[in-house]
């Protein structure tokens, strides 16, 4: 069986506190670089809380650093930010805010979608 590199969209929809689901999404996405996949992370719904500047969750900061070293794309849903009244000034640097049109493109450009 031959291994094929895949473009993977990881949807992080769960909040970064109270459960491990958000953390596991970050961990899985970083692991995909080791398998030569091309992951794109999209924070939406309550997952956008992981993008806040004052989020002091060490594992997420560590995974973000590794993700960026592989030149991975971490995106944040503009609609989800707006729904939660979170200003773009309140999120961490180096994150890409995307609108619903761009999110639609992500679903068509990636072969696999994994939700956390």
What does this structure look like?
This protein has 116 residues and is α/β, with parallel strands linked by helices. The chain has one domain (7-115): Hypothetical Protein Ychn, Chain: A. It contains four helices and five strands. The protein has helices spanning 21-34, 58-69, 78-83, 100-109; strands spanning 7-12, 38-43, 73-77, 96-98, 112-115. It has a five-stranded parallel β-sheet, with helices on both faces. Helix 1 runs parallel beside helix 2 (58-69). The longest helix has 14 residues, at 21-34. It is globular, with a radius of gyration of 14 Å. It starts with 6 loop residues before the first strand and ends with a strand. The mean pLDDT is 88.
Short overview:
The protein has 116 residues and is of the alpha/beta class.
Radius of gyration: 14 Å
| End-to-end Cα distance | 28 Å
CATH class: Alpha Beta
Total strands: the figure is 5
Strand order of the largest sheet: 4-3-2-1-5
The CATH architecture category equals 3-Layer(aba) Sandwich
Broad shape:
globular
Count of structural domains: 1
In terms of DSSP E residues, the strand content is: 15-25%
Average pLDDT, to the nearest integer?
88
Count helical runs. Answer: 4
Structural class assignment = alpha/beta
CATH superfamily: DsrEFH-like
Largest sheet: 5 strands, parallel
CATH topology heading? Hypothetical Protein Ychn, Chain: A
Helix content: 25-40%
Which stretches are low in confidence, meaning pLDDT under 50 for 5 or more residues running?
none
> Which series of helices and strands comes N to C?
EHEHEHEHE
